[in-house]
Amino acid sequence: MAAMIYPHDSCGVSGATSVFLKVDSDGSAVLYSGLSDVGQGSKTALSQLAAEILGIPMDKITFIAGDTHTTPYDEGTGASRTTFFCGHCVKEACEKARTQLFEAAGRMLGVPSPEKFYIQDGVIYLKTFPECHVSVAEAAHASERIYGHPILASATFSSFSTPADPETGHALMFERHTFGTQIAEVDVDIDTGEIDVLKLAAVHSCGTVINPNLVEGQIYGGVHMGLGQALMEEMLEREDGSVVSNTFSEYHILTAADMPGVMLSGMVERPVEDGPFGAGGMSEGAPSPTAPAVGNAVADALGIRFTSLPLTPERILTALKAKQSSQRS
Amino acid sequence: MLIHFHVNGKACAVDAAPDEKLLDTLREKLQITSVKRGCENGDCGACTVLLDGRPVASCIFLTVKARNHSIQTIEAFGEPGHLHPLQEKFRAHGAFQCGFCAPGVTLSAISLLNQNPTPTEEEVRRAISGNLCRCSGYVQIVEAIMDYVEERRAAREEL
Amino acid sequence: MKNSDFSYIGKRLPRQDAELQLTGTCRYGDDYFPPNLLIAKARYSDYPHAKLLGVDVSEAEAMPGVAAVITCRDVPYNRFGGG
């Protein structure tokens, strides 16, 4: 078993993130963000967040990301910061736009109090009398064409680290952290030195989960990397520094047939303070405890503590031989 | 030299050099960019196509060897708005993240399922072990394929 | 609030770009072929840990089809990282 704590956010820079939003008169919304969705699914998760607040169906939300010509500044997609930072901006921008929609609806219905409305499935309802309603499209249209107020919103969010105190050395490098624990069950063949990871369980904290498929994907992908680090991934160099392992024939990553027979994942949803609906982040932390968990399991199996990775059959057999020799002498 | 073969059911004739790779022919001469350039070493499977129904690594397959054969890329099985049922399962399970390995994995899986509609999980894993994925750990991919297998099995039983 | 109170949060919704990925329709960097496309290749040292005494690009520049040869001398401001 191994546990880890991992910061999310950047340190030493402002960590600024921003989002633009517009709601059009057909009842659709477009979000603009400088984030990069390289497969982690941020565009989808943040669209879910927007749909929740704006009450607009997902298929009417367009998320434009990572176009430096049209999207506002984002400090970068990494450090497990996107759901928290961009989400924070998406939530704030959507809440502003929602208030504008309620104001327009209020003018249309003669109820000039935005707090008296709620929004659901593209329709704005009066709380005390839901039969009184207008669609988001109608409210946006009226706001744009009649009241002279297109529905537009923007939001920014930053985070700063506190540098180290020269006297005490204490610093607040990151304001938020994610935690995770993984347990590995292994079988070691003492004749071949091969390690078979029979089961791996990974539980990570991430705050409120916006989309479980996406978070699980990050956990599994991270474990894949961690297992590679533990079992087979190694940059081999000659004495002169030239690299031997520069193709996948020499640099091995786990295939589908190499993954543990049983893979379990869990998500702890303790809400993150300041997170949008309590959401946080966790991805970069996912590979961290895997190799330590496997190393601890191997140490439990063989009574040998390894201090270098990967745990190749050669290293296992060499260590077993050394242990046998020292036991004999 | 002029090489005649079928791609996704259509007859093609391509002027190919003797050392030309099928990957380059498909991507650059036929504009089929769903076939990905990954390692160019036959290791990663991103360039997988089906040759007479069997998966091959097009990056190390000579175009001249495709003469009179049938090639299938992912376009043969689904298109936006009309996904293959296996692709629907991948979508529902959130199987792919960056998506780069998706066409290759799907073709390997389809090839297996055409030969063996009821594979075990181990057989599925072995069939896609030539397709490397760095994003997913293969978990949701395999779950989606097994879900598809089970659904087909149940549908056959009902008949 | 519990996840059951939400309409979208906590739900296993498919990725918005899933269909494009699955059908091979979405384009990655290598899949664009605009007109007048130039291809760049990196030339690294053949010798690791060697001392670089100089770089002579004249032969490369003279080769037919070569649009430009770029070295660090052509990058006036080279800053890595954020901030």
Give a written overview of the molecule.
The complex is a heterotrimer of chains A (329), B (159) and C (83). Chain A is of the alpha+beta class. Chain A folds into two domains: 17-157, 2-Layer Sandwich (Aldehyde Oxidoreductase, domain 4), CATH 3.30.365; 177-328, Aldehyde Oxidoreductase, domain 4, CATH 3.30.365.10. Chain A has six helices and eleven strands. Chain A has helices at residues 42-54, 82-109, 136-145, 212-231, 290-302, 313-328; strands at 2-7, 17-23, 29-33, 61-65, 117-120, 123-126, 129-135, 151-157, 177-188, 195-205, 262-268. In chain A, strands 1-9-10-11 form a four-stranded mixed sheet. In chain A, helix 1 packs parallel to helix 2. The radius of gyration of chain A is 26 Å and the shape is elongated. The relative contact order of chain A is 0.16. Chain B is of the alpha+beta class. Chain B has two domains: 2-76, Beta-grasp domain (Ubiquitin-like (UB roll)), CATH 3.10.20; 85-158, [2Fe-2S]-binding domain (DNA polymerase, domain 1, Orthogonal Bundle), CATH 1.10.150. Chain B is built from five helices and five strands, in the order ββαβββαααα. A five-stranded mixed sheet of chain B has the order 2-1-5-3-4, sandwiched between helices. The longest helix of chain B has 20 residues, at 139-158. The radius of gyration of chain B is 16 Å and the shape is globular. Chain C is largely without helices or strands and 83 residues long. Helices cover 12% and strands 0% of the residues of chain C. The radius of gyration of chain C is 24 Å and the shape is elongated. Chain A binds chain B through residues 38-41, 211, 213-214, 216-217, 220-225, 247-249, 253-259, 263, and chain B through 39, 41, 43-44, 93-94, 96-99, 122, 124-126, 128-142.
Brief descriptors of the model:
heterotrimer, A: 329 residues, alpha+beta, Aldehyde Oxidoreductase, domain 4, four-stranded mixed beta sheet, 11 strands, elongated, C: little secondary structure, 2 helices
Q: What does the overall shape of chain C look like?
A: elongated
Uncertain segments of chain A of ≥5 residues (pLDDT<50)?
Answer: none
H/E element order of chain A: EEEHEHEEEHEEEHEHH
Largest β sheet strand count, sense and barrel closure of chain C: none
Shape of chain A: elongated
Which second-level CATH architecture of the largest domain in chain A applies?
2-Layer Sandwich
Low-confidence stretches of chain C: none
Oligomerization:
heterotrimer
Fraction of residues in β-strands of chain C: under 5%
Termini separation of chain C comes to: 38 Å
Radius of gyration of chain C: 24 Å
Helix content class of chain A: 25-40%
Largest sheet of chain A: 4 strands, mixed
